[in-house]
Specification:
CATH class of the largest domain: Mainly Alpha
Helix content: 55-70%
Strand content: under 5%
Oligomer: single chain
Largest sheet: none
Length: about 200
């Protein structure tokens, strides 16, 4: 065992976060141990605590890094002057990219957040609800402007988010097709289904 090897200008803490996301995704947060993480990273378990306070801090950082990234992107989309369908497509592409390129982190954020402790759990749940409401507001704006079919915006957001969450099965598939092809197919279905 030695020092944590860094790559691509990543800090040791970033390496620990990436490896912990992979471990939490593979085993689940509850079943994963700091000892296993230390082994994966290549250090003694005690050395991890030079960079991180606890396993719960790792989950907190993973979940809130993703949530903060999503919120910042939503700010950017809402500030644009484009029509609602364009904004929705941009959001969907962003969310698909996350599931394709940062799968472990997004997966852990989506599935393991329930193990956050207070006050982080309530804060995270509030951020999730807010993101969904903001997404629904864009759909409602499109309905008012007659760009989008008259549908229930909350249901539409849930369907879109669950479809994107289902990309997990694409990662498991032995007959993978390109991530860009996956994205284009999903855009055709999800955005095409909203068009008036």
């Amino acid at each position: 065992m030695g020092r944590i090897k860094t790559e691509n200008n990543s800090s040791r803490k970033e390496i620990i976060l990436k490896k912990s996301a992979e471990l939490f995704k593979e085993k689940g947060y509850k079943a994963a141990s700091m000892r296993e993480l230390a082994e994966i990273v290549g250090v003694e378990a005690a050395s991890l605590y030079n960079h991180i306070r606890s396993k719960s801090e790792l989950l907190h950082l993973i979940c809130f890094n993703v949530a903060t990234h999503y919120s910042a992107f939503m700010d950017e989309v809402e500030a644009e002057k484009n029509n609602s369908l364009y904004k929705i497509e941009k959001l969907i592409r962003f969310l698909i990219d996350g599931m394709v390129e940062n799968f472990e982190e997004v997966y852990v954020c989506d599935r393991e957040w329930k193990y956050l402790t207070e006050p982080y759990l309530s804060n995270f749940q509030s951020q999730r609800r807010t993101f969904r409401k903001r997404f629904a507001s864009i759909i409602e704006e499109g309905i008012r402007k007659k760009e989008i079919k008259k549908i229930d915006a909350t249901t539409a957001v849930l369907v879109i988010l669950h479809a994107i969450s289902g990309i997990e099965s694409w990662h498991r598939s032995k007959q993978k097709f390109d991530g860009k092809e996956l994205q284009e197919n999903m855009i055709t279905i999800l955005v095409g289904g909203l068009k008036k």
